[in-house]
Give the backbone structure.
Amino acid sequence: MPLAQNGVSAGFPSPADDFKELRISIDQEVVKNAEATFYARVAGESMQGAGLDDGDLLVIDRSKEPQDNNIAVCFIDGEFTVKRLKVAEECIYLMPENSKYKPIRVTEENELIIWGVVTFVVKKV
Amino acid sequence: MVTLDSMFALVDCNNFYASCERVFQPQWEGKPIVILSNNDGCVIARSNEAKALGIPMGAPAFKYKEVFAKQRIKVFSSNYPLYGDMSSRVMQILENYTPDSEIYSIDEAFLKFDGFDYFDLKTTGHKMRKQVRQWTGIPVSVGFAPTKALAKIANKIAKKFDSRTQGVYIIDSCEKRVKALKWTAVKDIWGIGRQHSKRLEVQGIQTAYDFANLPDSWIKKHMSVLELRLKKDLLGLPYIKLEDVIPTKKSIATTRSFKSNLSQFHQLEERISTYANSCAEKLRKQEGSCSAVLIFIRSNSHQKNKKQYRNSCVITLPYATDSSLIISKQAANGLKRIFKDGIDYKKAGVILLGLVPAKERQLNLFQPDLNKHDPLMQAIDKIHLRFGPHKIKLGNQDLNSTWNMRQEHLSKRYTTELTEVFTVNNNSNITL
């Protein structure tokens, strides 16, 4: 509220205060936790089925605990990738959403870092 | 130990620059990393693994080129925009734990916990550690104690005995305090310079415990009022003040909360330039020069009903300087980039990064003598400094071409440039 912001305690708000409203920024929608929000660019087609196309911008919120079925940016055996997490009993699967790709089975022998949960994707139409 | 109703935490990022690089290049986790100064001159930061290999601070890059290659040490040029942004993320998370916090350097903050609400400091410490790690990827260590100087030591213990402490250590009894002081060598006491520590060692003063037991009169006679305050702090009596200049090796910071909120650009500009000048003074006092200037501004995150805004930016300088004029001008320029109208600002700060000894400055354009270089600086100032993202174009006769910084090992500005965010490659595991 502009009134409270300027510390005006009584009387009419100045008409000029209307212009002090900040313009809408896409951040308001996609950035829930600024300190934990990072961005990455998609290369490749393995997640096309989930709407993640080559060149899209991913919004990653590291404050979210990764859960089964989340789309997450992972670092697996020396490389970043984005996949859907599938938690099984003895392993985790990184599931692509494109039939041309096969799931990655992650066991104790692999080095997996679930880097952050993808919360939004920004794409050009 | 006098009272426990107020405790300080020192939160310190572990190998901060190396950790920032590892967040975006996790393949270097557990591997040796060094970070070079501006223009890839010398080593200014090392990972634990690089320290273990015996790479000294300040090692000249050209001399160590073969060592780096042979030992498979990953070399990075300093990426101040990245370190600055990661630092402000960490600091913001920490500030949510208490309204009373003080950013002490790019990778350290003192937090004050008042009252009896925080009896479970251990849980708080582990929570902070876990949150910072998860949100930003940066590992931190936390030391709690009744004074700042003791919190510094507690932090060192937390870091040194990581597996036992899980990164959190609390000095909350006389016994622990004495043990910690006996463990700390005189040269490692926060704020005791090399010359003083040598003198103390000659006197047979080996540990912080010995130092804390010296008579006040001796310290007053041979040292200064700062060392006297340090002694009291080590005894558990909080004497170290915000204004006390305790030099650090890595960065110099002046950050303050305003008495009342400020919302006008010129008000903030005045504050920022005051802080910049105070930083530059501290810098010259320790005969250093800096390679980058970080500034940040923040609304009061504890007043949730007000519009919140916080931002920071880093200006990387083409050469190291100790000039107040240049530093405060850069700081003001940084403010212009991030200032937003209609916000009640509560806090601002200036942090100087990439400190190198003044005598090791690579470009000997400015004399170390301030009086001598003042007119020169002013002249240069008139020629208007213009910026690109990486460099200042200096329209000076001595330097009439654009100075190209040597940054052969520079990582991307992953968090401050949309065109430089990291890429996730989805083409592996294709079946066709």
User: Anything to note?
Assistant: The two ends of chain B are 70 Å apart (CA to CA). The first strand of chain B starts at residue 6 and ends at 13. Confidence is low (pLDDT under 50) at residues 362-372, 380-403 of chain B. Residues 64 and 70 of chain B are 10 Å apart (CA to CA).
